[in-house]
Amino acid sequence: MRDALIAIDAGADYLGFNFYSKSARFVDGKTCAQITSVLKREHPNVKLVGVFVNSPIEEIKNILNSCFLDLAQLHGDESPETFSKLVPRAFKAFRRIPDDEIRLYARNETPSFLVDATVGGSYGGTGITADWSAAAKLAIRYPLFMAGGLKPENVADAVRQVNPWGVDVASGVESRPGEKDAKMIKDFVQAVHSVKERTL
Fold first, then answer.
1. Closest CA to 162 of 115, 105, 104
2. Which among 111, 114, 131, 137 could bridge 93 via Cys, Cβ 3.0 to 4.6 Å?
3. What is the C-alpha separation between 73 and 192, in angstroms, rounded?
4. Rg of the Cα trace of the chain?
């Protein structure tokens, strides 16, 4: 709860809850529901997102409902068929810049999808920087979330170069894996907002 409130106070619009059991950021459904039930009541405008990696469809649906989540971020190797059964409450995360398959996953809503860095055997949260140039080309056509190696020191440059619809961060605001740092969260959100304010 502490991390969620710090992020909200800093100005975050979306909060993520990781349901991948091998992640340092894993949260179980019961704990998540205890947190999100309060957040939905006290901060109804903040969007709550569940992060899933190759989870069964029914499990995702059950967690979305029991944890009061708005969206599911599919960060595994989910097929277009799996994706189609979860839209409009899901968006795909690509661990590389997508090519022809993008048409099978791109949503007609925001965010359309998420672009992360490519790291063999890992499902996000690695701290490796994504390909900003390739992401910028996609951002012209799609309202995308950008992730991959973003941190307070570089997120402003990333936003200026890529112009994404939104940014996603995990390890970039942690003092160690799975442990969020309050100052880093505030600095990250402030850096994003500073770019947005200058471009309005």
1. 115
2. 114
3. 21
4. 16
Please state, in angstroms and rounded to a whole number, the distance separating the CA atoms of residues 69 and 36: 8
Tokens matching residue 17:
């809850």
Q: Do 146 and 168 form a contact (C-beta atoms < 8 A)?
A: yes
Q: Which two tokens stand for residue 177?
A: 């894996």
Options 1.10.645.10, 1.10.287.990, 3.20.20.70, 3.40.1190.20; CATH of 2-95+102-194: 3.20.20.70
Instruction: Per-residue pLDDT tens, the chain, 200 aa: give them.
Output: 999 999 999 999 999 999 999 999 999 999 999 999 999 999 999 999 999 999 999 999 999 999 999 999 999 999 999 999 999 999 999 987 777 788 899 999 999 999 997 554 445 455 577 789 989 999 999 999 999 999 999 999 999 999 999 999 999 999 998 999 999 999 999 999 999 765 54
